[in-house]
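Here is an idea for our session: we take a single protein and study its fold together. Once you have written the record down, we can walk along the chain together.
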Amino acid sequence: MKKIINTPNAPAPIGPYNQATLMNGTLYISGQIPIDPATGNLVEGDIKKETTQSMENLKAILDEAGMTFDHVVKTSIFIKDMNQFSEINEAYGAYFDAETAPARETVEVANLPKFVNVEISMIAVK
């Protein structure tokens, strides 16, 4: 049975979707951008801080579903500028053990919602 996961500790969806869907032990988390859920404002100006905020939003959704980053099996990172890859990777990597990190792709795109620089989605399995 499909269960919808939403938490006030992550930004509210800005369209017709939910923060995550849990189905048969697999959690599909919608892409998270660097919005501070406490203020509703974008975190801007430093790609490491932007990436960290996106990861903190993902963490809040994982927490709501009773999971941690250890449950994550796949991530997708969408970035506006591949030249920022190393800084994004550094901030992202702080949330995972290199030996057990999930599968991932990183894709440069023309634009993202609210014209942010980074968006990250995840799939986790319990």
Remarks:
- The mean pLDDT is 97.
